[in-house]
Specification:
543 residues, 6-stranded mixed sheet, Diaminopimelate Epimerase, Chain A, domain 1, disordered N terminus
């Protein structure tokens, strides 16, 4: 085929600065889904075609992919990047699924960091405590050498504090908490157990040592290196603040940013949050940093029984969860932000929370804003078609449905609602557009490959029954890849700029060590990134 119409010599454009050739290129472009090579001039894709066609353009530099799969760079549509990056140097309890193993990791970190005033970290899973109970301070005290300790659950919605941390925070049997969340107390003694849910976490977290700006910048640099090694080229940050945006401004000024950032600013309980962010949005509308969205949170999580449910929890028949925002406050703030043109994202995990978000979006009559519901872990059958009808994006995290993590979740939801658990396929079949992400650090992994594996398989790497967990909610590989690329770009109204390997779009792509389309689906998790290119620049190359 003829790739480009060549101009007369006097008008000829400079040659590409970089080309990737001899590849199996999945473009995510419906008009040209497959190719062999991609050419870039600086930060823009200028041609996609055969290896011979691209070679004829005389690129200044060529990377031979050796027949490997090339994809658009992965877009993580929901992440809390600064927090996750800070956690990289803290206690990591991911995958530690017994109390002794957690204690061993905590003790080892405490020994290796004797000067740290607090022992901090996270990653513990609800499933890993006997009977699905929450952890206790008595299990933490023996391994924290009298220092205060504060460890977040893997989802970020509960915390585990030792006795010293509670003392520093002034939390005792006389302490009360009202609002969204719970200070968990022993029903017999009335003493705090060391477990805190949702808003009650601030009783202790407000006493944590402040991190310096340089510490936060150093952590983000470390996080960016990790993201580049996973093929992530864009991040949608779901918990923005003015201070955090400023950190990325500094990284851009130093030419240090290796993943594009899109911020959804945290609304909290402010009845008119978006007016203060208009200038920030206007300032940052370029390819590296944007502030186009606002994030609301209307409920909690299933495991701690704080997600808002239409019917009672199966294992706690007197509870239906909680709303983090009342309908009036949420609707008023949402309408104000929509009037200013901010794209709304809403955290809603329980079926009642999802319905509240859909009801509120339906009153806006602004499908051009492409409103999003984040998480959607369980949904009423009646609400499935409303995503298409109202024009709402289903923003979901395949890694949250990893079968090894859902025992406590499943007990809380119960058999009747279980078929609608993490309903990717049901939403897709009902006409919803999906976008996928990690929710890092509120997850067991930042890796898109782990997310792809579970989206396609609904099963763990080993030890899971052959049929997987609720296999009817699986999606096919191309759907999952689109949800991490072009549909993820669409989810922030940037599909004309990124998300596919199309001439004129940003030159963000990843080379894998194997062809996912020819790989046993059970082996997707084994795929590794060979090269990551962002803006036409190699930001990661495997040795």
């Amino acid at each position: 085929m003829v790739l480009l119409a060549f101009a007369p010599p006097a008008l000829a454009k400079p040659p590409p600065t970089l080309a990737v050739t001899n590849a199996r290129v999945w473009t995510a472009d419906s008009d040209r889904p497959w190719a062999e090579a991609v050419a870039m001039r600086d930060d823009v894709i200028v041609a996609v075609g055969t290896t011979e066609e691209i070679a004829a353009l005389s690129p200044a530099r060529t990377l031979d992919a050796g027949g490997r799969l090339v994809l658009p760079g992965f877009i993580d549509s929901h992440v809390h990047f600064a927090g996750g990056s800070l956690g990289l140097s803290q206690v990591d309890l991911t995958g530690a699924c017994s109390v002794p193993e957690m204690q061993s990791r905590i003790a080892a970190w405490a020994k290796a960091n004797p000067d740290a005033p607090w022992i901090q970290g996270g990653g513990w899973e609800y499933t890993c405590f006997p009977g699905g109970r929450l952890p206790t301070r008595e299990e933490l005290d023996p391994v924290t050498d009298s220092r205060p300790a504060y460890l977040r659950a893997y989802d970020g919605h509960s915390a585990w504090a030792n006795t010293r941390a509670l003392e520093v925070a002034g939390v005792d049997r006389g302490t009360t908490f009202t609002g969204f969340g719970e200070l968990v107390k022993d029903p017999g003694t009335g003493e705090p157990t060391g477990a805190l849910k949702e808003g009650a976490m601030r009783l202790v977290s407000s006493h944590l040592p402040a991190t310096t700006r340089e510490e936060r910048l150093a952590a983000i640099r470390q996080g960016l290196r990790a993201a580049a090694g996973l093929g992530i080229t864009s991040l949608h940050n779901a918990s923005g603040s003015v201070e955090e945006v400023g950190l990325y401004e500094e990284l851009i000024a130093g030419d240090e940013l290796t993943a594009r950032m899109v911020f959804a600013m945290s609304a909290g309980r402010d009845p008119d949050p978006c007016a203060a962010w208009q200038a920030l949005r206007e300032k940052h509308s370029g390819p590296w940093l944007r502030v186009p969205a606002v994030k609301f949170m209307v409920d909690g999580v299933i495991e701690s029984h704080t997600a808002a449910m239409l019917e009672p929890y199966s294992d706690k028949p007197d509870e239906r969860g909680q709303f983090a925002l009342d309908r009036e406050t949420y609707s008023k703030a949402l309408a104000g932000c929509a009037a200013l043109g901010f794209q709304p994202w809403t955290h809603a995990i329980g079926d009642a929370g999802v319905r509240l978000a859909l009801d509120a979006y339906d009153t806006l009559d602004r499908p051009d804003l492409r409103p999003r519901v984040e998480h959607i872990e369980v949904i009423s059958i009646a609400d499935l078609p409303r995503f298409r009808q109202v024009g709402v994006i289903a923003s979901m995290q395949p890694i949250h449905a990893y079968p090894s993590t859902v025992a406590v979740w499943s007990r809380a939801v119960g058999e009747a609602r279980l078929p609608r658990a993490f309903p990717w396929r049901s939403l897709q079949s009902a006409g919803a557009r999906l976008t996928f992400s990690s929710d890092w650090p509120a997850s067991i992994s930042l890796s898109p490959m782990r997310g792809l594996h579970n989206a396609v398989n609904r099963r763990t790497v080993e030890g899971d029954p052959p049929g997987g967990w609720l296999p009817q909610q699986r999606v096919d590989l191309e759907t999952a890849l689109r949800a991490y690329t072009i549909d993820a770009a669409w989810a922030v109204r940037l599909e004309d700029e990124r998300g596919s390997l199309t001439p004129g779009k940003l030159a963000d792509l990843v080379v894998l060590d194997r062809d996912l389309f020819a790989t046993d689906p059970q082996e997707i998790h084994e795929a590794q990134v060979v090269t990551t290119i962002v803006g036409g620049r190699v930001v990661y190359a495997r040795e």
